[in-house]
Amino acid sequence: MSNPRVVLSGTVSRGKLRLHVRDTERRQLLRWRDGTPLTVTVEKKHANRSAAQNAYLWSTVYATILDERLSEQGWTEDDLHFFCKARFLSKRLAICDGNGEVVEDCVLGGSTTRLTVVQFCEFIDAIIQWSAEKLHVAVPPADPNWRQNAHE
């Protein structure tokens, strides 16, 4: 049986928590019996990666690495993205038998969609450093005017 999880957003006003419950969350809550025990964790919300960061990753970082080194080996943008997620956001999963011995394991690449702005910067910085050290490819720094310059 799955363990359903409901994530709510909210705000604090004068020390009181005010939750914002959308229809989808309300429907999930109505599926639970009255009196169902819950665990509530409250944390300060952080901004997810920005559209500009994501655009820089794909239009400059990945494009430079592919153009300078990997496209000649048949790599695609998606290949590079999956590789970087596995290399820099890896998550090891293991299946154990009844004695706790690992019987099967694998490493998966994490997701970039829920990274904070700071975490996404760290992800990009790690790729740029790896590119310079391992591939000898220098990725240009972020250009705040990249959209304008792309049309020149």
Would you kindly provide a written description of the structure presented here, covering whatever features stand out?
The chain has 5 helices and 4 strands, in the order ββαααββαα. With 152 residues, the chain is of the alpha+beta class. It has a domain at 51-150. It is extended and about 60 Å long.
Using brief descriptors, characterize the structure shown.
4 strands; two-stranded antiparallel ribbon; alpha+beta; 152 residues
Strand count, sense and closure of the main sheet? 2 strands, antiparallel
List the total number of helices.
5
In spatial order, strands of the major sheet run 1-2
Secondary-structure element string:
EEHHHEEHH
Kindly provide the radius of gyration, computed on alpha-carbon positions and rounded to a whole number of angstroms. Answer: 21 Å
Report low-confidence residues grouped into runs of 5 or more.
none
Averaging pLDDT over every residue, what do you get? 86
| N-end to C-end Cα span | 56 Å
Proportion of beta-strand residues: 15-25%
Shape: extended
Structural class, judged by helices and strands?
Answer: alpha+beta
